[in-house]
Amino acid sequence: MINPFRLVGHGVLGTCETVGEIVLFAVQAIARGVRGPYYWRPLLQQMIDIGFYSLPVVGLTAIFTGMVLALQSYTGFSRFEAQSAVATIVVVSITRELGPVLAGLMVAGRVGAAMAAELGTMRVTEQIDALSTLSTDPMRYLVFPRLLAATLMMPVLVLIADIIGVMGGFIVGVAKLGFGPQDYINRTFDFLETGDVVAGLVKAAVFGFIVAMMGCFQGYNSGRGAQGVGTATTRAVVSASIMILTADYIVTELFFAK
Amino acid sequence: MSEAKIRIRGLSKAFGPKKVLQNLDLDVPDGQSVVVIGGSGTGKSVLLKCILGLLQPDSGSIRVDGQEVVGAGRREMEEIRRRFGMLFQGGALFDSLPVWENVAFGLLATRRLDRSAAHAKAVETLGRVGLPAATADLFPAELSGGMQKRVGLARAIAGEPDIIFFDEPTTGLDPIMADVINDLIRDLTREIGATALSITHDMASVRKIADRVAMLYDGRIIWEGPVAEIDASGNDYVNQFINGHADGPISFGQEQAARRA
């Protein structure tokens, strides 16, 4: 028998349960992680993987975004003779919004998926159990370094993406739209506020945490076998992406000044 | 007589409606090797994981050296686990670390040794399981199945544990390699003077490594005794299992029915 109330109730309760589990997982990972012992090697490894090896994909995303942004805003703003605002539009959009969000989504696909797959495989092959039997807390050894590395490295990554994105706009602005190089750079910095960049970097840290959190949570609680790991990976990327877009609004609202 | 090294009383564990362990009692005497036999999916692994504190039983008591494991705090559990060594079924080697770091992982984790001393200890332990020093710097993926088992064994004994658990130690090995691993398990356990608890369904392994045998069926230990008496147990279930007959009191359908009850 299909009872719609039951279906809805089931869904709501299930969602609440998952949210609770995720929050509990995060609190536990952080509470245990900060108390040590600390594992520097996994932390360093994760920082390099997230911060350095994500550079190509994030850089490419940023440069094309900056280029497209310059073209599109030129088209739009030239309709009311405001094409001089292109440089400002590019830098504000990139630093406040597109840099962190696009980098976050790319990192979710690259790093979040890898974390879920790695931890999921470790769960399935009993490596996580083996850690426990070898006097090592998997939360401290596996989860905490990933959370910390992603939270620390995402702002760095986004700062670089900001620079590359602005450069993309510069290239198009100078080569195609007829701005003078010095003029474009001046216009970029004239109306840029520290708050724009800071807001973007705060977002980046939040997104980094979300990506690592969902990657670790899904991998850690992965189901059995290849299918379980596959599902965990998909869930990690999808849930991280949705959460990034949700958190994006919340953080923007916090930094929003009239 | 003093209390057994591991003393399990009334242990029950269910996953949803599926009752895996029901009121299970088992004693593992100090310095002895007890092997739990039973068909696939009868809860042998669940039993091990309850003792290791990786699963929380629904009820019952597990005492290791008189210390209660069920409901123990995380710190307390970590303390108890230091006395344990475990050989996992698939090896469960950390594939991101070289062999030597796998072997010395517990020693490094508890800061008992620095890295160079740990490396030396790992090479020495690898020697005890018959692996040359050159394997120390390889990665687990570069090893054959038999070698991976040996590395797993080396990791289990590296911390000189009081109690070693073996989860299906011969699964996935050819009969000769299985025998080699069985010999190693028997010799090394005696050498360290450890108590051993193994689970397996490989009778050749049972006859080689067991002092005592316990048969798990329907969530309980239905027969327990010295390995020498296993052929004369007088228990239909044990007889069917050790002779590997399809016909007998144990059948797939009955097991399902028993679980549902």
Oligomer: heterodimer
Outline the low-pLDDT stretches of chain B. 253-261
Q: Approximately what portion of the residues of chain B adopt beta-strand conformation? A: 15-25%
In angstroms, what separates the terminal alpha carbons of chain B? 38 Å
Percent helix range of chain A: over 70%
Question: What is the spatial order of strands in the main beta sheet of chain B?
Answer: 6-7-8-3-9-10
- The Cα radius of gyration of chain A reads 21 Å
Number of strands of chain B: 10
The poorly predicted ranges of chain A are none
Largest interface: chains, residues each = A-B, 14 and 25 residues
Structural class of chain A: mainly alpha
What is the residue-averaged pLDDT of chain A?
92
The count of DSSP E runs of length 2 or more, i.e. the number of strands of chain A, is 0
Number of helices of chain B: 10
Order of helices and strands of chain A: HHHHHHHHH
Shape of chain B: globular
Summarize the amount of helix of chain B as a percent range. 25-40%
Q: What is the total domain count of chain A?
A: 1
Structural class of chain B: alpha/beta
Main sheet overview of chain B: 6 strands, mixed
What does this structure look like?
The complex is a heterodimer of chains A (258) and B (261). Chain A has 258 residues and is mostly helical. Helix content of chain A is 85%, strand content 0%. In chain A, α4 (86-124) runs parallel beside α8 (194-220) and α8 (194-220) packs antiparallel against α9 (225-255). Chain B has 261 residues and is of the alpha/beta class. Chain B is built from ten helices and ten strands. Chains A and B meet through α5 of A and α2, β6 and α4 of B.
